[in-house]
Amino acid sequence: MILFQDLCEVGERVCEVKGTTGRRILYEFIQRSKEGLEFDEFYIFIRLVLPQLDDVRKSFGLKEVLLGKIYSELLSLNDTEMKRLRYYKDPNKALANINTPKGIQVGNFPSVLYYTLASRLSCTESSMTMVQVNEWLDLLWGSQDDNKRRYELFQRIINECPPLHHKWIVKLVLKNLEFSIGYETILKMIHPTGAELYNSNGQLRLTLEEVWSKTTPASLPLAGGVTRNPKPMLAKAVSLEQVPNTCRSLVDGSMTAVAIEPKLDGERLLCRYKRASEDDDVELLLYTRSGNSDYPSMYIPYLKTFFDGAISST
Q1: Would the pLDDT of 310 be above 50?
Q2: Which residue range or ranges hold the DNA ligase ATP-dependent N-terminal domain (predicted)?
């Protein structure tokens, strides 16, 4: 059982020292924490260490201003404190009426929130585990269409958690722990092939399942196949004056031909065509630059007509 307090304390140290020392602290924490865990607990642990890769809880629909509003209303903050959270990027308002502003990071909402709550919350310690925090985050993610429920969930942690926990819970909600350590580096701390596997499949749980096996080699060939939403690639944008030199450098490098197309206003989409056999219906999916496939379906009938008969195999 890993206490959430452990993640908070290690996170503070990593953010403070950064660089090689910060990476070493995080590596030792990961290695120490995963001992004795079952896979499901390990998966929860890594979801909290790498919230930006969590493809289950993609977005909480909460940004800094709305979070500040929730805390202001639940704690009945005075006008100065409310403005401190709302205008956390403004030094004059973020540091207003703080006796010892040393350590507060203007422009960093979790930091400003922490110093605001320090004089407000009576709770000084908590025994919440990472599993319990993960469950709370699941409930919060599921309450996006229920504002009353959302407020109730924040009231619960206000009653149960000290200011430091709020700082790191908010970081998890914002999906940025501010470690200054790339996700690939952290995945390699878990297993030498962690980053390679994730970049291949794009799914955190699938990656962790692969490396959980004690027999997974330190390097391995990766299987092909589409296991995540693809994204259309951007072409290189250059001015007309740069075109000759750009083409020359590409051809000299390894390419034998260069295609140049005008940039027209419109949508950049990637169309995935799928049909198992000639007798099956055509399945078309449109992907945007963010990898979303829920693009309006108004184009699908036209595209199906266009592709019908033009492609004989998939």
Answers
A1: yes
A2: 4-191
- What residue type is 15 in one-letter code? C
d(CA 146, CA 104): 33
Q: What's the CA angle centered on 43, arms 20 and 109, to 5 degrees?
A: 60
**Burial of residue 43, with CB atoms counted within 10 A of its CB: 0-12 exposed, 13-18 middle, 19 or more buried:** middle
> Residue 218 domain-assigned?
no
Which two three-digit tokens encode residue 144? 């996006």
Give the CATH number of the domain where residue 183 resides.
1.10.3260.10
- Our count of domains for the chain comes to 2
* pTM for the predicted model, two decimal places: 0.71
Q: Which two tokens stand for residue 47?
A: 């979801």
Q: Given the structure tokens 């269409």, which residue do they identify?
A: 145
Helices (H), 35-99: 39-49, 64-75, 79-86, 91-94
Tokens in use for 94?
A: 């973020």
Instruction: Encode burial over 57-91: b for 16+ CB neighbours within 10 A, e otherwise.
Output: beebebebeebbebbbeebebeeebbbbbbbbeee
pLDDT above 80 (res 263): no
Tokens 């419109």 locate to: 266
Nearest in space to 289 (alpha carbons), one of 219, 207, 235, 232: 232
| Domain region containing 33 | 1-190
Burial of residue 109, with CB atoms counted within 10 A of its CB: 0-12 exposed, 13-18 middle, 19 or more buried: buried
> Within a domain: residue 289?
yes
Which neighbouring-strand residues pair with 270?
A: 287
Average pLDDT score, the chain: 82
12 with 160, same domain?
A: yes
Please give the Cα distance from 109 to 88 (Å, whole number): 6
Q: Are residues 33 and 178 in the same domain?
A: yes
Question: Which residue did the predictor score with more confidence, 271 or 294?
Answer: 271
